[in-house]
């Protein structure tokens, strides 16, 4: 954006200022793709809900069972992303700061939840955490039931969205100058203080972004969750499942209505995290 | 507080960064560690600070063994080349950091800390920037804040790792002078690392020249320049003109070039070193020297005119450099490609069998 020359136009190709040509073409293709892949489906979604009146819409999205599913989904996503915030930071820390045999393999394994079909993840987790499964047996001794409870939803959500946190924190951690920590230590700061006052504030924006991505991904998670959740109405039914149920009833409008709520929630969250991060980074980079 | 280093050794894997370094730095001295990159000067500084630990040897502060003491307990001020300011803190918070992180019982009150920070910022003349963030400062300002931050704990020892390396020439000069004044005023012991010989010679009470993990020479700047003990120090301190040849019949010669030595020297291979100011230029050879040269480039900026000269009919490892006054330049008006002859006034002869040079005077 060429602000210095007074107003700027969206299609300002700024001839002669870039080494590589083709701004108009690449911008056109990008916009086309955004339209086809993102905007058009969203428009379709809104168009479908438009078949309903406001009161119908309101009735669908505030149905008691649907409200219960919002609560389950939000709480589960909250705890899953919270867990990922801690576990992801730890993993990123270990992968960046230490050298150990098998580091490359662990680094590659981090992306496994992305590569694995979510249904496969769901079935595997359900088998592991079932009362006769490997983990389930041990947890049963402690009196903890994971499979077919809301706890199972958290496990599934955490599993599928862990890479978001690791992969956003990792590069920032790699870029962190060791001098900052050394400077703090020469001034007498304890290890904990160095982490709390020097390292963490630098990681904070990336960590928040990672956690927010993890959260929004969890809000929409379907495949991994339904196999382990038990799907009891009012107890362990997630919003994505409500959409699916409405679809099975051929009530496309209602399905779209509920989907629009999830979409709005995700968008609001992503936008606010972006705005917050931009402010924080502006302070750091002085723009 | 004096610093004593005894037989410091440090290896990184199979690379031996420091070999048996011993050094005594008296209280209140400003010492420059000078050397090319990879000479181990930064490693040595970090070992003094405790950021790196030596494989062997002892470090003493004021006679007290601190070798096993953690960085935190050594209480030295350390300034980094790239400032290492905390980007998410304001300038004032950066300077206050050392006081802020003191254990509760030793920590001054918030008002006291604010007052100390105010004084420190005044000392570095940047009080007006207290509420800015580091990203809003220039390089010179950042480095002054980094200094204020390091001095907040009133350290007895200040260590600086290439403190002016990332700054432009003008700012570097100002800061250098300013650091010297600060040092004289507060009277701590300072050690700074630099690869800039001009900086080392101008700023230090004594200069430690290092190469390949060893100390080559420790001396006061004037002595270092006047009497370099080795070829390395000679090469490293400013430009040097070299005639490498064979000595026979009291003459050192290489193809078309020769110089008659004022006294008898055993024959064999040798190198004669001549500083730019120890050589004159003439249009004709003299009786005791025949060094044909061709003008390669002329630099008019500065107190004198610097000529770069290419040897004609003989070889030198690098171009010769000779300074002439502007008056001489105006009288002679040399052009690129002009021929002339060098006349040595003072020369330093290095022979393979003796480590230190023999100095000769002509005329």
Automatic annotation (TrEMBL), chain A:
The chain crosses the membrane at residues 20-47, 74-96, 108-129, 135-159, 198-216, 222-245, 252-276. The keyword Hydrolase does not apply. It is found in: Cell membrane. PROSITE patterns: ABC_TM1. Gene3D superfamilies: MetI-like (1.10.3720.10). Coiled coil: none annotated. Residues 70-273 form the ABC transmembrane type-1 domain. It is a multi-pass membrane protein. InterPro entries: CysT_permease, MetI-like, MetI-like_sf, Sulph_transpt2. Keywords: Membrane, Sulfate transport, Transmembrane, Transmembrane helix, Transport. Pfam families: BPD_transp_1 (PF00528). Belongs to the binding-protein-dependent transport system permease family. CysTW subfamily. The complex is composed of two ATP-binding proteins (CysA), two transmembrane proteins (CysT and CysW) and a solute-binding protein (CysP). This is Sulfate transport system permease protein CysT. It comes from Halopseudomonas aestusnigri. The lineage of its organism: Bacteria, Pseudomonadati, Pseudomonadota, Gammaproteobacteria, Pseudomonadales.
Automatic annotation (TrEMBL), chain B:
CDD domains: ABC_CysA_sulfate_importer. One of its GO terms (cellular component) is ATP-binding cassette (ABC) transporter complex. Keywords: ATP-binding, Cell membrane, Membrane, Nucleotide-binding, Sulfate transport, Translocase, Transport. Residues 3-237 form the ABC transporter domain. InterPro entries: AAA+_ATPase (IPR003593), ABC_SmlMolc_Importer (IPR050093), ABC_transporter-like_ATP-bd (IPR003439), ABC_transporter-like_CS (IPR017871), Mo/tungstate-bd_C_term_dom (IPR008995), P-loop_NTPase (IPR027417), Sulph_transpt1 (IPR005666), TOBE-like (IPR024765). GO terms for molecular function: ABC-type sulfate transporter activity; ATP binding; ATP hydrolysis activity. Pfam families: ABC_tran, TOBE_3. Gene3D superfamilies: P-loop containing nucleotide triphosphate hydrolases. This is Sulfate transport system ATP-binding protein. It comes from Halopseudomonas aestusnigri.
């Amino acid at each position: 954006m060429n602000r210095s020359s007074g107003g700027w136009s969206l299609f300002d190709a700024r001839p002669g200022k870039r080494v590589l040509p083709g701004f108009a073409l690449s911008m056109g293709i990008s916009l086309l793709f955004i339209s086809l892949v993102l905007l058009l489906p969203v428009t379709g979604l809104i168009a479908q809900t438009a078949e309903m009146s406001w009161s119908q819409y309101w009735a669908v999205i505030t149905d008691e069972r649907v409200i219960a599913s919002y609560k389950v989904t939000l709480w589960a996503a909250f705890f899953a992303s919270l867990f990922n915030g801690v576990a992801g930071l730890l993993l990123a820390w270990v992968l960046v700061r230490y050298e150990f045999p098998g580091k490359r393999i662990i680094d590659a394994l981090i992306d496994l939840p992305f590569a694995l079909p979510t249904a496969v993840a769901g079935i595997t987790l359900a088998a592991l955490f079932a009362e006769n499964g490997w983990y389930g047996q041990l947890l049963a001794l402690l009196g903890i039931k994971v499979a077919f409870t809301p706890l199972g939803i958290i496990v599934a959500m955490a599993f599928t969205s862990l890479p978001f946190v690791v992969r956003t924190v990792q590069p920032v951690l790699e870029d962190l100058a060791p001098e900052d920590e050394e400077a703090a230590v020469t001034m007498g700061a304890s290890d904990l203080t160095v982490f709390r006052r020097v390292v963490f504030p630098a990681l904070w924006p990336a960590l928040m972004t990672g956690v927010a991505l993890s959260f929004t991904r969890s809000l929409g998670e379907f495949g991994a969750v339904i196999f382990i959740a038990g799907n009891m109405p009012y107890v362990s039914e997630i919003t994505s499942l409500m959409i699916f149920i409405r679809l099975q009833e051929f009530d496309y409008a209602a399905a779209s209505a509920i989907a629009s709520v999830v979409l709005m929630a995700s968008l609001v969250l992503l936008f606010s995290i972006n705005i917050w991060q931009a402010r924080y980074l502006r302070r750091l980079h002085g723009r | 507080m004096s610093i004593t280093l005894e037989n410091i050794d440090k290896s990184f894997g199979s690379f031996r960064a420091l070999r048996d370094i011993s050094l005594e730095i008296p209280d209140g001295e400003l010492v420059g560690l000078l050397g090319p990159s990879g000479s181990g000067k930064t490693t040595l500084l970090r070992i003094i600070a405790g950021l790196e630990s030596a494989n062997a040897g002892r470090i003493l502060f004021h006679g007290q063994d601190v070798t096993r003491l953690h960085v935190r307990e050594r209480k030295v001020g350390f300034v980094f080349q790239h400032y290492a300011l905390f980007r998410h803190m304001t300038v004032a918070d950066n300077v206050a950091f050392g006081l802020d992180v003191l254990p509760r019982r030793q920590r001054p009150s918030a008002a006291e800390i604010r007052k100390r920070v105010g004084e420190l910022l005044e000392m570095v003349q940047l009080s007006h920037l207290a509420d800015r963030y580091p990203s809003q400062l220039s390089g010179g300002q950042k480095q002054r804040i980094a200094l204020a931050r390091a001095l907040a704990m009133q350290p007895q020892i200040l260590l600086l790792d290439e403190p002016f390396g990332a700054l432009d020439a003008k700012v570097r000069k100002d800061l250098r002078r300013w650091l010297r004044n600060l040092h004289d005023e507060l009277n701590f012991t300072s050690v700074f690392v630099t690869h800039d010989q001009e900086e080392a010679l101008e700023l230090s009470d004594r200069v430690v020249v290092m190469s390949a993990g060893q100390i080559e020479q420790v001396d006061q700047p004037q002595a270092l320049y006047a009497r370099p003990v080795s070829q390395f120090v000679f090469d490293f301190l400013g430009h040097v003109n070299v005639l490498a040849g064979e000595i026979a019949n009291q003459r050192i010669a290489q193809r078309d070039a020769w110089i008659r030595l004022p006294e008898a020297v055993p024959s064999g291979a040798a190198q004669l070193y001549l500083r730019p100011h120890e050589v004159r230029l003439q249009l004709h050879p003299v009786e005791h020297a025949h060094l044909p040269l061709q003008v390669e480039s002329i630099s008019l900026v500065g107190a004198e005119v610097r000529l770069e000269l290419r040897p004609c009919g003989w070889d030198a490892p690098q171009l010769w450099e000779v300074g002439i006054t502007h008056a001489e330049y105006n009288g002679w008006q040399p052009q690129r490609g002009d021929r002339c002859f060098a006349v040595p006034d003072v020369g330093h002869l290095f022979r393979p069998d003796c480590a230190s040079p023999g100095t000769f005077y002509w005329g």
